[in-house]
Amino acid sequence: MSQRTPSPPLKSPIQEIINDLYNRYREVHTGEVATYIPELGKANPDKLAISVVTADGQVYEAGDTQQTFTIQSISKPFTYGIALEDNGRSAVIDKIGVEPTGEAFNSISLDPATGRPLNPMINAGAIATTSLVEGKTTKQKMHRILDAFARYTGRKMDVDNNVYLSESETGHRNRAIAYMLRNFDIITDDPLPSLEAYFMQCSILVNCRDLGMMAATLANGGLNPLSGTRAVIGDYVESMLSVMGSCGMYDAAGEWIYNVGMPAKSGVAGGILAVLPGQLGIGVFSPRLDKHGNSVRGIGICRELSQRFDLHMFHVSRSGRTVIRHSGHGGLTFSNRMRLESETDLLREHGNQIETLELQGELVFSTAEIVIRESIKKADKADYFILSFRHVQVVDLVAAGLIKDLALEMVNAGKTLVLSGTRHLPVLEKVLKKELTSESFNQLQWIQDTDIALEQCENLLIQSHTTLHHSGHLANLGESLLLKGFRSGEIQLIESLVKKCNYKKGDNIINVKDPATELYFLMKGKVSAWIDISGTDGKRVATFTSGMVFGEMALLDRAPRSARVTADTDLECYSLSLSDLDAFAEKNPQLMIHIMRNLAELLAQRLRKANAEISALYK
Amino acid sequence: MSQRTPSPPLKSPIQEIINDLYNRYREVHTGEVATYIPELGKANPDKLAISVVTADGQVYEAGDTQQTFTIQSISKPFTYGIALEDNGRSAVIDKIGVEPTGEAFNSISLDPATGRPLNPMINAGAIATTSLVEGKTTKQKMHRILDAFARYTGRKMDVDNNVYLSESETGHRNRAIAYMLRNFDIITDDPLPSLEAYFMQCSILVNCRDLGMMAATLANGGLNPLSGTRAVIGDYVESMLSVMGSCGMYDAAGEWIYNVGMPAKSGVAGGILAVLPGQLGIGVFSPRLDKHGNSVRGIGICRELSQRFDLHMFHVSRSGRTVIRHSGHGGLTFSNRMRLESETDLLREHGNQIETLELQGELVFSTAEIVIRESIKKADKADYFILSFRHVQVVDLVAAGLIKDLALEMVNAGKTLVLSGTRHLPVLEKVLKKELTSESFNQLQWIQDTDIALEQCENLLIQSHTTLHHSGHLANLGESLLLKGFRSGEIQLIESLVKKCNYKKGDNIINVKDPATELYFLMKGKVSAWIDISGTDGKRVATFTSGMVFGEMALLDRAPRSARVTADTDLECYSLSLSDLDAFAEKNPQLMIHIMRNLAELLAQRLRKANAEISALYK
């Protein structure tokens, strides 16, 4: 069937969705660039960039993600993390509350009795936060802040001096707040070095990729997923996310959590950062703002990403890096079909054209993302792809949609995709049937038993490389593997002992507990050995084709049969009675040694195959 | 070592912690029982109950968890779920906002312009919510509400009529609110049937177990984990949790999310319900209230549970039901050590006394809980327990602490616990070393290679059942498995062919690529065959002890050696040159047939063992 033809690299459907969002939001032109300081007014209002970074560092992005802008209020939760590290949680809580205000970002919102700012996301709380960063001077504090931010982004950070000077010159309201904090002893020494550090911290230059990476670092428990550097003590990440969640989006915090469901923070230069804990981080940059001071396109894109991928933090997902139970290729892991030596050699050489991904757990966005990423990576060299869903408990609609996108990519690239073990997940077939053209859908293979799926792929691979040596009829007994190396006169001796017998498809040739009185040379057709397991269709333990022998274990122990053997097709066999063989062995001992050696060799081959499979399964 | 002696069932450390919490909080007597209606004042103030129910239905509880009380405000998010089902999200949002108020529960908090209640957790929003439940009459609405609540609890629900009448008689403020809502057309028809339904809904009788189960159902995406019944459309669970998260704890929502980190709801009868999405639900009942109207003990217990188990919703966890990669017992899965037939028979019969749990992913509270639950379940019949951490990426302190508790339980019960593949997780050994007495710690086995760990357990099991037949020296060649069934004269013939050779521990007897010129009868000691894998210690593929042969594959193909064989101890062997054996076979063909049959039988045994292992691994 599918011949190995060069095909373009597969496209990630997730990247496609980001591209589509980018293209649609480029056409949105509402909102105004912030102008409260002249420097911000100079931004190009049409810029747009999106970066989605997973908690293990995979980046999906679109637009001008390297364009720098000032971080502004998005710095607040990160400086809060530094203050927690430098003072401990209770000392920080003493100075700054964690209650939402329901007021705008520049409200003063101090507790009337204690002067304690209600939370660290409003300016008063943020200035108090910066005052808690280690260091007496502005320079010392900024050193600490720039170092910390660099651990999140993975690159050295700088301040935009023009924006900083502009902020400082026009920051009268913040200066008033700083002195109010000094008045209430929230700041206990000169407030000006802290205030200047606050202005500088807001003027740190970031790009959209930086925001995505900072968010992903929080999603990853404070560990930068690319550099492996710890950006903040893991225990404080939950506090940073808590204040972002309850106070991050100013006067619409409840609505944001309700609809978008991710702790987030925006800045007036047009940046937005959002975090789905344990899963991913989002950065968006677009300078036009709504009346709340949030990026219009940024808000829209976050909403759509959340809805499209079900990223709400309360969407029940047991995400995991362990969605892939086992991944193996056909050169290492084999089906239970017994193969001729030449076929096994061919599978060893070319078997990496068959890839199997055995999945497990729950398929939601974050786990499906990993499946797609792995599939695309492996599909480059593989023509045959088996996705086994046997151990998957749930597939949600988002994941089913992504599998559909992946299937379409694979079919279009001429790959053979087999979906296995899907019977308990009707939603999967339903979504694929509904959303693919019938032409594409019909190119998918649905085979419930993963072992049989693997056998089919092996057959296709072998067919594409060669005509099967023994696809049909054996000319004579001498081609049987048990008689390998026998001379023609010797074969005639055996022929005089055997009895021809034919079976119809479906016949049981051997039943469990039958006495073991003969072995069979298979001349034409296919048989399988089965172990019966109550309540199931049984388990296929081996399949034999022409040239092979079955029932051969009787040569070793004359114990009753332990498996049922059934004809998969009409058969032609020769049976050899063991008592006849015993008599023959008396007269022809050298030939019997030869038969026994051949048998031992067949067993040794099967053992090597089994051991390779165990190693692969344990990998 | 550890003999099979009857031991009491193992205690779950999680249950122990719940018991401890219960015992400590029983001594807390602050707070006052609600008295705003006389019926509530009759509650026994000393009652205390705790129920923790995991998202897959495991219940841990203490105290009088069957004592009923009225649900009160805890009904609000659940009725909100019904309103969402009956009207869709946007119609509900049109009538009721989702913003926190920062005010007390009985504040009126209507938007001054539109009359829209700020959120569904304050009384105004809750009465509006009940008005949105399907049905014209109080009876129709209550039918819908009781049915829905029964799906969460798994039992039929009833109303406490005395409390209801008392609420209705004294509910003047709520009556005022209802008419205010009618005035603003938030309620568009007679408000009284909805108001009465609201009073009744608050008077539904629940017990602490019910609260735990309702919470667990939300944690499980709306599916009751015990009955499998869907209690609410999954898509609305995130909305219910969102309003609980931002508005559930009245005027301290920010502080609650910051410190406890779970969406929660309390009722004035003393109930508290908290949800950790995807993981678990908590119910607590204790009637004495603080000045905010929340159960004093309930708040304290929720806080402690959150801290003790790191249950904050932003604690990065990739929880999963799939923390157990593989679970097998020693009667099905074997080490790579070659065994005598009698040993293999013994392992088949008694091997279920060895249990192996191979773990994967991240160990945090929710995944460690599953490990502990499974371990305790399996430990009843097993004396030997292997926990393999090879595929575990992270163990947090909570999980390490729980593993420590489990280890102590096992050691105290006389079980042999082997911790395997822990080298990359130093925190585990550190916590166990620090928190266990050195006597307990020294009873743990730390064996990095899981295969060697399994072998050691097999050895201990075999030793406990029998003296090894061939533990020491073979008396003569006739005891070798390859010569099984040989008569003494026949053995003497073989003895005339072999050469005695001794090796020191650590000697390489066979090297990869050596020509295969002889096979070895092992008379005393132990050897292992290794495949070298660059960058690792190599992989042990087989271990042989006295009575066995090695290098025997040379009998089949005379190809160069494919594995290195190294002496694990000082050895005594006999080597047999293959050319001598060939000459012998010419003269003694029947003996050669016998040798070949014995060889094939050994291979067949190993193959059966390998196939059983593959089946177990695929299970």
Quick structural gist:
The structure is a homodimer of 619-residue chains. With 619 residues, the first copy, chain A, is of the alpha+beta class.
Can you put this structure into words, describing what you see?
2 copies of one chain form a homodimer. Chain A has 619 residues and is of the alpha+beta class. The first copy, chain A, has 3 domains: 14-309, DD-peptidase/beta-lactamase superfamily (Beta-lactamase, 3-Layer(aba) Sandwich), CATH 3.40.710; 321-465, Transcription Regulator spoIIAA, CATH 3.30.750.24; 477-618, Jelly Rolls. Chain A is 42% helix and 18% strand. Chain A is built from 22 helices and 22 strands. In chain A, α6 packs parallel to α9. The radius of gyration of chain A is 34 Å and the shape is elongated. The two termini of chain A are 31 Å apart. The model of chain A is unreliable at 1-6 and 467-471 (pLDDT under 50). At the A-B interface, α11, α12, β11 and α22 of A face α11, α12, β9 and α22 of B.
Keywords:
5-stranded antiparallel sheet; homodimer; 3 domains; 18% strand; Jelly Rolls; Transcription Regulator spoIIAA; 619 residues; alpha+beta; 5-stranded mixed sheet; disordered N terminus; Beta-lactamase; 22 strands
Topology overview:
The structure is a homodimer of 619-residue chains.
Chain A lengths: L12 H13 L6 E2 L4 H4 L7 E6 L4 E5 L4 E3 L4 H13 L1 H7 L27 H9 L6 H16 L7 H10 L1 H12 L8 H11 L2 E3 H12 L14 H14 L5 H7 L4 E3 L4 E6 L3 E6 L2 E2 L6 H14 L14 E6 L11 H10 L3 E10 L1 H15 L4 E12 L1 H16 L3 E5 L5 H10 L2 H5 L2 E2 L3 H16 L22 H8 L3 E5 L4 E3 L7 E7 L1 E6 L7 E7 L3 E2 L13 E4 L3 E7 H10 L1 H30 L1
